[in-house]
Amino acid sequence: MPQKTPIDQMMAHQSIRKFTHQTVSQEIINTCIKAGQAAASSSFVQVTSVIQVNCAQNRAALAIAAGGQSYVESAAVFLVFCADLQRNQEICLRQHQQMPTGYTEQTLIASVDTALFAQNVLLAAQSLGLGGVFIGGLRNQPEVVTKVLKLPKQVFPIFGLCLGYPDQDPGQKPRLPLSMVLHQEHYSNDNLTHLANYDTQIRHYYQKRSQGRLNLTFSEHIVKTLVKEARPHMLPYLHSQGFCTR
User: Fold this and answer.
1) Residues above pLDDT 70, as percent of the chain
2) Predicted confidence (pLDDT) per residue in 122-134, tens digit
C-alpha cells in the first residue's frame, strides 16, 4: 500500500473520540510538540505553551469542566494548549523593566499562533498512526481549568487535544462546497445559493452516522450551536487574566 502524502493525511482527517488502551510513548509526544513548534509564529514571538495532563484526578476535573466529555479521561494523551504572554512579559521585565500588555492584538496573535501550533501537533500525530479530537469545551469553565493547571496571569487555555490510537472509524463530515468558501476578488453572498444541497448532504451524513437517530441539516446545526455556545463569560475571564483590556 503506498504511503499517504501530507495532503492525503489532511484530507483524511476525522475526529477520534474512542481510543485503544495502547500507550503513546513520550518520545512520540515530544516529536509531535516539536512539529507544533515548527508552525509559523507571528513576529517570532512564540506565545504558546502546552500542558500535558497525566494525573487521573486532574483529567477527571477537566472532563467535567469541558461538559462531561469522557474521552478527556480515556485518551492515552491529553494536552492543553495555552496562549502564553507571561513568558515574554518576564523577558521584557528583565531586559526592559516594562512590557505593554493587555492589547487585543496580542490576544489575537497568541490565539492564532496557538491554533497553528496545535494543528501541526495533530497532523504529526496522525502521520504516526494516532487520532485525536480538539476539546474547545474547556472554555465552558475557564476558571476551573486555570485553577487545575495553575495558570498564571497572561496565560489562558484555548482548547485541549485528546490523542491516542483510534478504536473507531466514524467517517468524515462533508465540508462546505469550495464555492461557498473560496471567494474571487471580493466577498460574495451568492455562495449561499449552494446551501440547500449541502443541507441535504449533511442530513444524510447524520442519519447514517446515528443509524437514523439524528436528523439535522447544516443550517439547523448552526442555529443550534450558535444559540448555546456564546460563552459570554469569556470576556471577563480574559480581562481577569490580563488579556483584551485595551
Assistant:
1) 99
2) 999 999 999 999 9
What pLDDT, on the 0 to 100 scale, is given for residue 190? 78
Query: How confident is the model over 99-124, as a mean pLDDT?
Result: 94
Residue 122 and residue 33: Cα distance in Å, rounded? 9
Q: Which of 84, 90, 62, 85 is nearest to 75 (CA)?
A: 62
The bridge status of strand 131-135 relative to strand 48-52 is: unpaired
- Say if 214 falls within a structural domain: no
pLDDT above 80 (res 21): yes
Who's near 217: CB < 8 A, 6+ residues apart? 199, 200, 202, 203
Q: Are residues 22 and 119 in the same domain?
A: yes
Q: Domain residues for 182?
A: 178-209
Residues counted in the chain: 246
β-bridge pairing 155-164 and 77-84: antiparallel
Give the Cα separation of 209 and 127 in Å (integer): 25
Mean pLDDT of the region 147-158: 97
State pTM to two decimals: 0.94
- C-alpha to C-alpha distance for 169 and 190, rounded to whole angstroms: 35
Phi/psi at 107 (nearest 5 deg)?
-65, -45
In contact, 46 and 84? CB cutoff 8 Å? no
Same domain, 20 and 139: yes
Q: What is the CATH number of the domain that holds 37?
A: 3.40.109.10
